[in-house]
Automatic annotation (TrEMBL):
Taxonomic superkingdom: Bacteria
A GO CC annotation given for this chain: methylcrotonoyl-CoA carboxylase complex
Matches recorded under PROSITE patterns: COA_CT_CTER, COA_CT_NTER
Domain CoA carboxyltransferase C-terminal: 276-533
PANTHER family registered for this protein in UniProt: ACETYL, PROPIONYL, PYRUVATE, AND GLUTACONYL CARBOXYLASE-RELATED, METHYLCROTONOYL-COA CARBOXYLASE BETA CHAIN, MITOCHONDRIAL
Gene Ontology MF terms: methylcrotonoyl-CoA carboxylase activity
Name of this protein: Acyl-CoA carboxylase subunit beta
Pfam families linked: Carboxyl_trans
Domain CoA carboxyltransferase N-terminal: residue ranges: 12-270
Length: 542
């Protein structure tokens, strides 16, 4: 092992350690005191409920663990968006789980909570996965109601999705394990079946205080909307359970009797580990992100038996395209080559940049994968498309448009992993969040923005200096340097994968060694949704 490898390995392992430390903190929700408060009421926490519900020893792919990270600090923050979501297994059956975290502001909904809930429903809809809601929420966080309540992608979209999912035949089961108030009361009752826990579960359109204020009636919450009321008088709920565990056992029993699902029919054989040691990835990602590296070395440590079938290997070399298997599943991989390559025309091409020939190749490869019903995996470390007169005269916009068109119209499921840079139109062409990847995760080494920090800071500095000069103000070199440092610091903070994960631009941040798990569980989920739409790219630029 050389010194460079060891240096890279130390740097990436340090980032993974930081990731694990941040996750431990996030998993504590509202903190130990709030956890104890839930236990004192005889309740499990959201994460304890999810652990108990899912098959022992099975994988859980969390979605949005860092949602809300660093946001809403003025009101005490909202760890993990106040809700736990992800893909797991109940009685061997893959499903989506959504569990309100009552340790975070009594499970109240912040704007990011709504966004995260909608993302979980989107995963269920796209993949036709059953979904379980473990409801324990005080409802909308009133000081921010204007950011949660009225718009298309706000709170109300949840219930619209309940109705749409029901019409699609997607199984929805809800357990009322705590408060369930106002509009939120519709979520469990618009599900196929609703369970309620005695003593702690309650559901009503208006609580006792509001009832008193509105119509003058004096009544306690349990009589108004507790388990006995809704299981024996109103008939609103279907099962009454004595405690959390009994409710979760009921859900497991329901899953145990469910029929099989229709399959998309993606190819899978017996999984095999990569022949090259996966852990060597740590030493292969340069600590200095400007340095080149060979993306094939990463791919060989992600794919089964380290076997890769390259497509147009010696043409358009700044993008690697080819077929492989990941955990037994057949995939088509589109990845940015980060080493400098030389085309047969004698042109030196920079790593991480998409040129006309590589965009052309990728478009054709993507179309081929759709023809053969092969899921697509995008490995991003992209600076953008090539610029300058030579690229423009060569039709880079036309070729880039062709690639975006082929990718955007794909009917096979797409999965995106941000390994390094994810800048500008490169993010788009390589299936960024706007292009409906079924899952999109980032390594701790990822950066996500319209351009690199250095480029952006210099551009923003020029704009600000010009604005000052236009007002007749001169700026000293020292003041200009200080301004540049301030702009760079702010921009670099926004480049962070944690900034992206907090806002759900990515579904999460993972240790590189979890990449195979994410893609495998993602394709397994996608296999629940048969492809019903023909592949049609419309007008392709030629």
């Amino acid at each position: 092992m050389d010194i460079e490898f060891n240096k890279n390995e130390d740097a990436l392992k340090q980032l993974v350690f930081q990731l694990q430390s941040k996750l431990k903190k996030v998993h504590m929700g509202g903190g130990e005191k709030r956890i104890q408060k839930e236990h004192n009421k005889g309740k499990l926490t959201a994460r304890e409920r999810v652990d108990y519900l899912l098959d022992e020893g099975s994988e859980f792919l969390e979605i949005g663990a860092f949602a809300g990270e660093g946001m809403y600090q003025e009101v005490g923050g909202c760890p993990s968006g106040g809700v736990v979501t992800g893909i797991g297994y109940i009685k061997g059956r893959q499903c989506v789980v959504v569990a309100n975290d009552a340790t975070v502001k009594a499970g109240a909904w912040f704007p990011i909570t709504a966004k995260k809930n909608l993302r979980a429903q989107e995963v269920a809809i796209e993949n036709r996965l059953p979904i379980v809601y473990l409801v324990d929420s005080a409802g909308v966080f009133l000081p921010m109601q204007d950011e949660i309540f009225p718009d298309k992608e706000h709170f109300g979209r949840m219930f619209r999705n309940n109705a749409v999912m029901s019409s699609m035949g997607i199984v929805q089961i809800a357990a009322i394990m705590g408060s369930c108030v106002a509009g939120g009361a519709y979520l469990p009752i618009m599900s196929d079946e609703a369970l309620i826990v005695e003593g702690t579960g309650s559901i009503f359109l208006a609580g006792s205080y509001l009832v008193k204020a509105a119509i003058g009636e004096t009544i306690d919450n349990e009589t108004l909307g507790g388990a006995t009321t809704h299981s024996e008088i109103s008939g609103v709920t279907d099962y009454k359970c004595k405690d959390d565990k009994e409710a979760l056992d009921h859900i497991r029993n329901i899953f145990d009797k469910m029929g099989d699902y229709n399959k998309a029919g993606f190819s899978r054989i017996e999984p095999a580990a990569p022949k090259h040691d996966e852990k060597e990835i740590y030493g292969m990602m340069p600590a200095d992100r400007v340095k080149p590296y060979d993306m094939m070395e990463i791919i060989n440590r992600l794919v089964d038996n380290s076997e890769f079938e390259p497509y147009k290997e010696h043409y358009g070399q700044s993008l690697i395209c080819g077929l492989a298997r990941i955990d037994g599943w057949a995939v088509g991989i589109v990845a940015n080559q980060r080493k400098i390559v030389k085309s047969k025309k004698g042109e030196m091409q920079m790593g991480g940049v998409i040129y006309s020939d590589s965009a052309d190749k990728a478009a054709r490869f993507i179309m081929n994968c759709n023809q053969k019903k092969i899921p697509l995996v995008f490995l991003q470390d992209v600076s953008g498309f090539m610029v300058g007169s030579k690229a423009e005269h060569g039709g880079i916009i036309k070729d880039g448009a062709k690639m975006v068109n082929a990718m955007a119209n794909s009917v096979v499921p797409k999965f995106t992993i941000l390994i390094g840079n994810s800048y500008g139109a490169g993010n788009y062409a390589m299936c960024g969040k706007a292009y409906d990847p079924r899952l999109i995760y980032a390594w701790p080494t990822a950066q996500l923005a319209v351009m690199s920090g250095a480029s952006a800071a210099k551009t923003l500095l020029q704009i600000q200096v010009s604005a000052l000069k236009a007002k007749g103000e001169e700026i000293t070199p020292e003041a200009e340097q200080e301004l540049l440092e301030r702009i760079t610091a702010k921009y670099n903070e926004e480049l962070s994968p944690y900034y992206a994960a907090a806002r759900l631009w990515v579904d999460g941040i993972i240790d590189p060694l979890e990449t195979r798990k994410v893609i495998s569980m993602g394709i397994e989920a996608a296999n629940h949704a048969p492809i019903e739409k023909p592949y049609n790219v419309g007008v392709i630029q030629t």
